[in-house]
Amino acid sequence: MSTTHPSVIGGAASARTGVRWRIFGVIALLTVINLADRTTLSVGMPTIAHELGLSPTMQGLILSSFFWTYALLQVPGGYLIDRMGPSRVVTISTLAWGAFQTLAAFATGGLSLLVTRLGLGAAEAPLFPAGGKLNALWLSPRERGRGAVLMDSGSYLGAGLGGGVIAWLIYALDSWRMAFAVAGIVTIGAGLVAWRYLRDDPAVHPAVNEVELAHIRTPVPGMAQVVPAGTPLASRAVAPVMLGRCGWAMMNFGLITWGPSYLAQARGFDLKQLGGAMAVIFICGFLGSLTAGFGADALQRRGLPRSLVLKAMLCLSGLGVLGAFLLLPTIADPAAAVALLSGTVFLLCFGSLYWSFPALLAPADKVGLVGGMMNFAGSLGGIAIPIIAGMILQATGSYTVVLHFFSGCAALYVLGTLLVPLAERETAR
Predict the structure, then answer these.
(1) CATH code, domain with 420
(2) 248, 288 in Cβ contact below 8 A?
(3) Parallel, antiparallel, or unpaired: how do β-strands 8-9 and 12-13 relate?
(4) pLDDT tens digits, residue range 71-98?
(5) Closest C-alpha to 42, from 65, 72, 71, 70
(6) Which terminus of the chain has fewer Cβ atoms in its 10 Å neighbourhood, N or C?
(7) Burial class (CB in 10 A: 0-12, 13-18, 19+), 391
(8) In which band, very low, low, confident or very high, does the pLDDT at 14 lie, cut at 50, 70 and 90?
(9) HSE-CB for 362 with a 13 A CA cutoff
(10) How far, in Å, CA of 288 to CA of 409, rounded?
(11) SS3 state of residue 13
(12) Burial (Cβ within 10 Å: 0-12, 13-18, ≥19) of residue 180
């Protein structure tokens, strides 16, 4: 198939189109919906647990079950993305997870709810690795920091707005089941949008002109890959990314899965207050993610070394949240606790910069696989943390120990970040 990309109009050079950013706008929309659907259970859990008679440990298992299949399919999903193309995989993924989200509305007990969460995890698994692949295909090296956070920041907007919207739907419809069904139908509609607009190759997108295509394909000196061709699992460039991502994910998914219950049980929030607080907290995360991406690209344009910028921002993130989790149990006022959590999540979401690593560390034919490996490590954290938090809570009856455990996860996040060997490429220019 040949596609014409007019680069001149009336004999004058045309302006560069901005299709690449609209592509990432669609991906950001999908990540908003992705996390909104994922968060529905966390927000609805106090109501669902009461209706279905679920213990804290069983709640933890159900919250964790999403990540069992999500983790299992990360590397196979990355392989399929590299073979089938990210656009096709994203479309199938979105339609499938919308179907499982709708089916959750018909759950009759803990087991059936767990099964729908397993399906949701399997269906959602390829989205972020596919976004990492599209980052490499559609953006120039100097734009990939912004691309990474536009993709990942949507997840925090989804956790925030999605949590608020789901809480409102449960309250307005007086039914968590109807709220789940509405969320699933909206997701299926988004899958049709992805099918209509996404393309793997900028050259075949009808709205891309030659000026934008040349911009995307122009190499930047000194930005060659670190990981050689071959299996990236053996590379010491990838293992630290997996370590740091796992530590980050345990904090992130710990807040997403147990945060609503923490606010309800430890801080006394009702459903409407809970929805508002979750919206504020995760919108701050959305702003933090954007700050990290645009700030990192701006600092690199000023000539600061890539490794210094990325590691400094990620370590600031990790050390900041470590201190905040230690401080949070000492805060008595609920409003002050929400303010501190908002600042914590703002810094935590600097971790969106991790999605620039697959394109930086992997050869072009392995970006999807490396993204899948990184997300697999994060998913292991997502599997572990709901269960660990539930067991800690059942054993101690206190969220303080849970928050201190999150501080340990922050230390792991910082350690992994420091070990990523980005500086090697800069000294080899």
Answers:
(1) 1.20.1250.20
(2) no
(3) antiparallel
(4) 888 778 888 888 888 889 999 999 999 9
(5) 65
(6) N
(7) middle
(8) low
(9) 32
(10) 19
(11) strand
(12) buried
Q: Rounded distance, CA 342 to CA 285, Å?
A: 7
CA angle at residue 376 from 371 to 379, to 5 degrees? 125
Rounded to whole angstroms, how far apart are CA atoms 31 and 21?
Answer: 15
Where is mean pLDDT largest: 164-173, 205-214, 229-238, 341-350?
341-350
Residue 9 lies in a domain: no
- For 8, the 3-state DSSP assignment is strand
> Rounded distance, CA 50 to CA 309, Å?
47
36-54 residue pLDDT tens: 888 888 888 888 888 888 8
Identify whether 121 is part of a domain. Answer: yes
Containing domain of residue 180, as a range? 17-427
**Whole-structure pTM value:** 0.69
- Encode pLDDT of 260-316 as tens digits: 888 888 888 887 788 788 888 888 988 998 898 888 888 888 888 877 888 899 999
In a domain? residue 344:
yes
Q: How many domains does the chain have?
A: 1
pLDDT at 343 > cutoff 90: yes
Numbers of helices and strands, H then E, in the chain: 17, 2
What one-character-per-residue DSSP string does 252-297 give? HHHHHHHHHHHHHHTS---HHHHHHHHHHHHHHHHHHHHHHHHHHH
Task: Give yes or no for a contact between 100 and 120, defined as CB atoms under 8 angstroms apart.
Answer: yes
What was the pLDDT predicted at 413? 96
**Mean pLDDT (whole number) for 223-251:** 70
d(CA 147, CA 376): 21
Contact between 417 and 315 (Cβ < 8 Å): yes
Where helices occur in 143-270 by DSSP H, the ranges are: 144-173, 176-197, 210-217, 239-265
| Residue 101, amino acid | Q
Domain membership of residue 276 (yes or no) is yes
